[in-house]
Amino acid sequence: MSDGAVKLSKFVSYILRHKPESIGLVLDAEGWARIDELLEKGNASGVSFGRDELLELVANSDKKRFSLSEDGLRIRAAQGHSVEVTLGLEAREPPSVLYHGTATRFLDAILVKGLTPQSRQQVHLSVDVATATKVGQRHGKPVVLVVGAQQMFAKGFRFFQADNGVWLTDHVPPQFLRFGETGEA
Ligand code: HQG
Questions:
Q1: Whose CA is nearest to atom 25 of ligand 1?
Q2: Same domain, 41 and 104
């Protein structure tokens, strides 16, 4: 993505996941915003972007961060919310393992409490080690934990897959975690 696209992606992520009210936008219960309104209020807040740029961002976002409604009139973040939303995803059977990239400085707490959503609505899990490593790098020295997703599922934990493939669950107790890769080259 170009520098401009990354900047716009960060702005739209911030609005649709965390602070819609900062530009006077109201999301519906499932996290959707009207595209017209996002354009109008985003531009009024001083960030200038057009419909084409926004739609290009949706199509080319490296992590497919945004989804469009079937009628093409609304947009939402696929995952990552701190605002309370009900994405309306169906619970699904996960693969046998999933991965969670984090930073080494969080490990002590994670080994006691397991993975908890922190400021987001759910814990985010990746389907592969490479992606998890990148997620962990955002926070510091990365470490990848292997999540016994199938084991959890067998015990009644529920898993959801966002439109962009990221898996979501409410909590991963420490007994379902084991160390994977350091994420280092
Ligand atoms: C850690 C990005 C202490 C957790 C990514 C993580 C993802 C704990 C941090 C999505 C803990 C929260 C989400 C505990 C978990 N004690 N720390 N008990 N349990 N943590 O950013 O998963 O690029 O809220 O390990 O790709 O890093 O923005 O979550 O390090 O899909 O599109 O607390 O955001 O997507 O950090 O990332 P975050 P995350 P985008």
A1: 102
A2: no
